[in-house]
Every structure is written in C-alpha cells, then in structure tokens.
From TrEMBL:
UniProt-annotated location(s): Cell membrane
Keywords, sorted A to Z: Coiled coil, Lipoprotein, Membrane, Palmitate, Signal, Transmembrane, Transmembrane beta strand
Region (Disordered) residue spans: 473-492
PANTHER family, sorted: CATION EFFLUX SYSTEM PROTEIN CUSC, OUTER MEMBRANE CATION EFFLUX PROTEIN
Protein name per the record: Transporter
Annotated signal sequence range: 1-16
InterPro entries named among the record's database cross-references: MdtP/NodT-like, OMP_efflux
Length: 492
C-alpha cells in the first residue's frame, strides 16, 4: 500500500516538461558600433592590458574620497533599498521553484462524542461515548508541469532576481558617481571661497591705498568708490560661498549616510582633481552591454519572454495529483497497530474549454509587455550611448579649454601688476586697474570651475561606461547569470 502511494510522487520527477517559451534572441542595440570621435580631440588609445574590471579605487586615487565612497556604500539608504529588493526577489524565486516539488503536509486529529441518551442522564447503559483518532501525510493538487507553465514562471522569477542584482550594481554605480561629484563640488566651492577671501584682502589693500591717495589730493573720490565695488563684490561672494560649502557638506553627508569629519573633506579642487586617473576613450560601443542598467533591462526582457511560455501553456490541459496515507482508529492506544492503515490517491485533469477570451487576452498582454521590454532595452542602450558620446565630446576639447583658462589667469595677473604700477606712477587712470582686478577675479573663478568640469567629466565617463569592463572582449555573448554572492561583490 505504501509503495503505491509513494509512486504518486514519481511522475513529476520522471516526466520532462516541454517548453512553450519563444527562443530568446538579444535585440540589436540600434546604435553605432563605435563612439564618435571629435577631430583634433585628445583621446588616448586603449591600454594593452586587455579586458578587466575597473573599480572606483583605480579611477579615484584620493585617499579621502576612497574613505568617503567606502562609507557611502556601507551606509547609503538608497543602496539598502536596492539590497532589500534583491532579498525580496530571491524569496520570490524560491516560491516559484517550490512549485516543481509537491507540498507534503502532515495532520493529526481526535474527536470524542457522547450520544443524546447519556447526556439526559439515562444511566450508564443509556448512552455511549465514541472516539476517533487519525494521523496522516499527503499531498494535494500537485500539478505535473507537462507544458512548461511552472518552468516558465520559474525562469521569469530567475530573470527578475538577476535583474535586481544588476539593479544593485546600477544603484551602487550611481551612488559612486554622485558622491564623487559632490566631493569635487565641495572642493571647488572651497577653492572659490579661498579666491574670494584672497580678493577681499587684496581689495582691502587697494581701498586703503586709494583712500590715502584721495586724502592726499592725488586721486579722485570716484577712484575710491570704484575700488570699493571690487571689495564689496568679493565680500558678497565670500558670504555666499561660505553657505554653499556648508550646503555641499550636507549633500555629501546625505549620500554617505553618516557625518563626514573635517579630515575627510577635500582642501581644494587644485589638490583633489589631479588624483583622478584617466579613462580609455577609443572604445567599441558593445562595452555598453555590460553596463548595469542595460543588464537589468535585458533581464526584464528575459522575464517578459518567459511569461509568454506560461501564457501559452495555460491553453493546454493540466494534470493534478492528490494522495494521502495515514492511520485511523477508535482508540488512541491502537492507532499505529493492527490493520489501521488508510490511503487514497487520485488525479484530476483540467481542460480549458471556454474562458470568455481571458486566455487569449492574457497571451496578448504578455506579448505586449515583451515588446515594451524590448523597446525599453534598446532605449536604455541608446541613452547609455548618448551619455558616453556626450562625455567623450567634452573630454576631447577639455584639455584645450583648461590650457586656455590657465593662460587667461596668467595674463590677467600680469595685466593687474602692470596696471597697478602705471596707476601709482600716474600714467593710467584707476579704471584700468579696476578692470584688471575684475578680470583676474573672474578668471580665477573660471579656472576653478574648469577643474570641476574636468573632474566631473572623468566621473561621468566612469559612470556612463558602467564602472566595469572597458573593452569589447569583456562583453562578448549574452550576460551570464551570476551567483548572488558574487554579483553583489562585483566591482563598480
């Protein structure tokens, strides 16, 4: 008897389900095979080291920034949400895979009843007490996956899980980029604050000198007022930048998820920006296939493709098994003795005949979702291509722009020295000196901003390239399904 019941669990293990899923084919990226090259741009060739992942520690060489990035990855709440989504998807995957195996439950029960005669006090012989005990193990409505419905649902759950793993990498990459940009913005505002403070001191000396010349009758009062305009502007900028530096610190602490100490803050953009390593520029656009958001979009497409198989399988018959084996007795002491064994088994066949178009509508719906996921996948690649192309376009001319800005600062500083000397000698009016002061002040501010543009450009290149493999050989073929423990440790 027990052997017959055990045989009920064999068909699910012995029968191989066919699959009604469409064969998955990666959509064409719909972008050029190479990124655009700006004529005359500064674009170094690929290194000879070959394919390898590039982490943020290789790009950002500033120990202070590395410490901040490590803390941000450990504490950032958005990243914690992404990790929670991974755990949620992992749980859903286990639920989906559990349908491959029968759910076996055990139960036990007891009932004791006294008849009406005994309840009315008719004496010991006027009524009776009945007892019933049972213990049983069984399975209920276990579906044999003949047409791959459960397998397709499991495949969809697996793709969704792997998509959330890629989502963690995307969230981590975004966090690294935003934190690095906030760090360099803070460094730039600190540099601008230093420029404003130096300009205030310089303008104060000029105002004092001009006031003395006005008192001596050498200069006009208009010269004093003109000198004061530079001083007041620098003072206003100093006050504004003092607030901006604190706001930058608050923004950085929000990304880090914890207070940032003074020792971790950058002193100035001049010392922080040179510590960024260069990123190769002459890349094949297939490198974008390894970008986390592109990988996530492809897994979403794979899940939508798998659901088509489940929707197709719903048109076919289903076979469900039910089985039970146990013991029953009128006395607890004899429950597991003698001929107390009971068992039963059965199979149900379900065939959809008329569903009012629900099955066809569901298939049409999942196909539409697959088409939408295909379009979203292509759009994600196109967006990634544009981001890289924009960053490369800026990078191609940024060296010339920075060199020109440095030359402007040098020329403005020399012009101010000459103008001050000629004003003291009475050769030129003070207006020339005033213009030279304003030009130098503006040029120094622009140079600090140019350093920030160059830093953010490298950050954007690192982020838009995916923070991972940087050469075509690293992304040949479809993305592999990583194990969860390895995927979460992948370098950005």
């Amino acid at each position: 008897m027990i052997r017959r019941t055990a045989l009920l669990t064999l068909p699910p293990l012995a029968l191989a389900a066919c699959s009604l899923e469409p064969a998955y084919e990666r959509p064409s990226p719909a972008v050029s095979s190479a990124f655009p090259v700006v004529p005359g741009g500064d674009q170094p060739p690929l290194p000879a080291s070959g394919a390898r992942p590039v982490g943020y520690r290789e790009i950002f060489r500033d120990p202070r920034l590395i410490a901040i990035l490590d803390r941000a990855i450990a504490n950032n709440q958005n990243l914690q949400v992404a990790l929670a989504n991974v755990r949620d998807a992992r749980g859903q995957l286990r639920v989906a895979r559990a349908e491959f195996l029968p759910a076996i439950d055990a139960s036990a029960g007891a009932s004791i009843a006294r008849n009406r005669g005994a309840a009315q006090g008719l004496g010991a012989n006027g009524g009776s007490v009945s007892e019933q005990y049972n213990a049983q193990v069984g399975l209920s409505a276990f579906e044999i996956d003949l047409f791959g419905r459960i397998r397709s649902q499991s495949n969809a759950a697996l793709a969704e899980y792997l998509g959330t793993v890629a989502g963690v990498r995307a969230a981590r990459l975004t966090l690294v980029g935003e934190t690095a940009s906030a760090y360099y913005t803070l460094a730039t505002d600190r540099s601008l604050l230093a420029v404003a403070e130096e300009t205030v001191k310089s303008a104060e000396r000029t105002v004092a000198l001009t006031r003395a010349r006005v008192s001596g009758g050498i200069a006009a009062r208009t010269d004093l007022r003109q000198a004061e305009t530079v001083l007041r502007q620098a003072e206003a900028d100093r006050a504004d930048l003092t607030a901006l530096v604190q706001q930058d610190r608050n923004a950085l602490q929000l990304l880090v998820g914890a207070p940032v100490t003074d020792a971790e803050l950058p002193a100035a953009i001049e010392s922080a920006e040179p510590l960024i390593a260069d990123v190769p520029a002459n890349l094949d656009s297939r490198v974008l296939l390894a970008r986390p958001d592109v990988v996530q979009a492809e897994y979403t497409l794979r899940a939508a493709n798998a659901r088509i198989g489940a929707a197709r399988a719903a048109f076919f018959p289903t076979i469900s098994l039910t089985g039970l084996v146990g013991f029953a007795s009128n006395a607890l002491s004899s429950l597991f003795t003698g001929d107390r064994l009971i068992w039963n088994g059965g199979a149900d066949l379900g065939v959809p005949i008329f569903q009012g178009g629900a099955l066809t509508g569901n298939l049409e719906s999942v196909r539409a979702r697959r088409d939408a996921a295909t379009a979203q996948y292509r759009q994600t690649i196109q967006t990634a291509f544009r981001e890289v192309a924009d960053a490369l376009a800026r990078r191609a001319v940024i060296a010339d722009q920075f060199a020109a800005q440095q030359g402007l600062v040098e020329a403005a500083a020399d012009t101010l020295r000459l103008s001050e000397a000629r004003y003291r000698e009475g050769i030129d009016p003070f207006l020339n000196t005033l213009d030279a002061q304003r030009t130098l002040y503006s040029a120094r501010r622009a140079l600090a901003q140019a350093r920030l543009v160059r830093a953010n450009n490298l950050v954007e290149l690192y982020r838009s390239l995916g923070g991972g493999e940087l050469v075509p050989e690293a992304v040949e073929g479809p993305p592999e399904a990583p194990r969860a423990g390895e995927a979460l440790k992948t370098s950005d």
